[in-house]
Design a protein that fits this description.
- The chain has 202 residues and is mainly alpha-helical.
- The chain is 76% helix and 0% strand.
- The protein has ten helices and no strands.
- Keywords: DNA-binding, Repressor, Transcription, Transcription regulation.
- Residues 36-55 bind DNA.
Length: 202
């Protein structure tokens, strides 16, 4: 593309966040099958070619949308964990934020798609995914360590327990996100709460 053409594209393109907001809104309304580069371009006033110029591929668009969504969730998570109250109460708030609200939850729908596509992702993309996962893990480990130091939780290894808890949450959350019958969000929250009381408090 000529230099003048590049400047024109940059001048006329909407802010990057507008594209990511539109992508997430489309996923929420129509699912991933409804998200196409051409359709997204129409929403934000760009051609699919211009979108590909900025993002390089649909995989990159999805990963950047996930990173944007996770940044907002991270802000909420840190605010929840900074509240006053017992470590057990804040751990429950962490779980509530982690588990999807309902079937086809857009954030979890996006996560599942990025996970699926990661089979063919390069090392840099995998590192970015690991960074998102790592933020959830570090916050959980810090909260567990705090609860242990206060005598609220049993003296478990925070890192190992956190890894196991997140694996449990992932498994349950996928069931909600894909809409498997017989296991709703309320059922899962009850299961996890019972597990935490048995493993950490009793």
């Amino acid at each position: 593309m000529a230099a003048g053409g590049v400047r024109a594209v940059r001048k006329n393109a909407p802010p990057r966040e507008d594209v990511l907001v539109a992508a997430m809104a489309t996923i929420a309304e129509r699912g991933l099958e409804g998200l196409t580069m051409a359709g997204l371009g129409r929403q934000v006033g760009m051609s699919s070619g211009h979108l590909l110029y900025y993002f390089g591929s649909k995989d990159e668009l999805l990963l950047q949308t996930l990173e944007w969504s996770e940044a907002a969730l991270g802000t909420r998570r840190r605010a929840l964990l900074a509240r006053s109250g017992s470590a057990r109460e804040r751990l429950q708030a962490y779980v509530d934020l982690y588990v999807p609200e309902e079937a086809r939850d857009p954030h979890w729908t996006l996560w599942l798609e990025v996970w699926n596509r990661s089979q063919n992702a390069g090392p840099q993309e995998r590192e970015r995914q690991a960074s998102i996962e790592g933020a959830w893990h570090r916050d959980l480990v810090a909260l567990l360590a705090e609860g242990i130091s206060r005598g609220e939780f049993r003296p478990v290894d925070p890192d190992r327990f956190g890894a196991r808890l997140r694996a449990l949450l992932d498994g349950f959350s996928i069931q909600v996100a894909v809409g498997l019958p017989g296991m709703g969000r309320a059922d899962i929250l009850a299961h996890v709460s019972e597990f935490l009381d048995e493993a950490l408090v009793s």
